[in-house]
Amino acid sequence: MSLIELGEVGHTPEAVTPPSRPPHPSRRRWITAGALLTLLLTGMGGGAPSPRPMPEATIPAQLGAVVFAEGDRLFVIDPPARSAESFIAAYRLPAAEPLWRVPVPVGRPGWTAQLLQHRLAGETLVVSAVSESLPNQADQVAGLDARTGRLLWHHPGRLMDVTAQDSVLLVLAERDATRTGPTVAALAPESGALRWSLALPPDGEFVHDFDSAQPRSLVAVRGSGQTQVRDLESGKVVQEARLPIEARPDGPPMQVIAGLLLEFDDGRRTLAAYGLDRLDRRWVIPLTSVDRPFTSSCGDSLCVWSHNTGVRVVDPRDGRTRWSDPLWIDVEQVGRHMVASPFRTTFGEAGMLVVLDPATGRRIGTFDAWSRVGPPRADGRLLAIRRDSGTGRTEVALLDPATLTVRPVAMLDRISGQCDGVPGIMFCRRLDSSVGVWRLPE
User: Fold this and answer.
1) C-alpha distances in angstroms, 101 versus 72, 133, 154?
2) Which of 423, 412, 441 is nearest to 58 (CA)?
3) Contact 284, 269 (CB under 8 A)
4) 336-375, pLDDT tens digit by residue?
5) In angstroms, rounded to a whole number, what is the distance separating the alpha carbons of residues 177 and 334?
């Protein structure tokens, strides 16, 4: 496969001046959801960037295809088609060498509105089809040998997650005619064999710690408030108690984050936290927003999001509010600082990243026009891109929240803005829907 030069890499880090005061809310910018896929970059060393162009390979892909990488392999899943057969293809990185191409083993013609989910569990690629256009059809999940593409197993259900040990799949099993409550089933990824299952009554609800990169616990709540904490690997009950909560399958969702079960009460407008280790209530705080909040981990804090009130940063030990700000969203701890995106924006504006003091929420600095790509590096720097509206080129750089500096990495041509990667490798969707793959400089 030919190598294409992308242009020259910059030399001089760009300084970012800390602003004296926040800009007016009408001029704030944020990263639009879905604009970027996750990019993990860990293979770049320190010092000045190399002036060498980055080698490139190109992989064909249809518009709407799902593209993701795991380890040294990149997978392309065709979008569902009404009549034509869709395929999954695998390529070895960094040269984008074709490995195999097989028909998608889930879904069927006519599932034009299906959603495809995917995870890699060991050497098993798991794909899931969810029918939206044909709601009476059973959802499906299948396992493929990631090395050869061979179909290993097929099962009715919906992919939920992969456990911490990467050895058990968690799926939502198909409901039968005699049991209308939800059923959770754990399968062995290499064979699809059932490890354990849990059926709940119609008024039951379950939730697992999806906010964690390595989920370990499942919480099942029955309508009476009887609550169980189960180990995801074995399915065994590790804690059980009756709590003053109600399972509401059609109501506000519960969440499991940072060892806490969080319950939203729409009627009382409160958020209550229960510890998973003893199932005891730790704290209750009032909610001022009229819309339903969402909670996530942000460093050693909990961040409670709301479309009306922005973010509230809470101490998970006692529920005390450390600080709040209606202007920020998507707050995350990065090294010694927090990085956030402005909540309000005008459609079509470029991105903006803000560096905050974790203790007070005070704004330390701003990276104007940059859109963050993926999680932080081990050294605390962030990979980001920004588009030059005049030339249409996309600049790639490393942002350092600690020093408020920008290190240019490369300039890319004809990029749609959707990028992802694995250590040492970066790939982006091009304007013609193909995928460009680049080896990053060391």
Assistant:
1) 17, 27, 18
2) 412
3) no
4) 999 998 875 543 345 789 999 999 999 999 998 888 877 7
5) 49
Strands 435-439 and 56-59, bridge-based pairing: antiparallel
Length of the chain: 442
Q: What is the pLDDT of residues 119-160, one digit of tens each?
A: 899 999 999 887 665 555 567 899 999 999 999 999 888 888
Domains of the chain in sequence order: 15-439 (2.130.10)
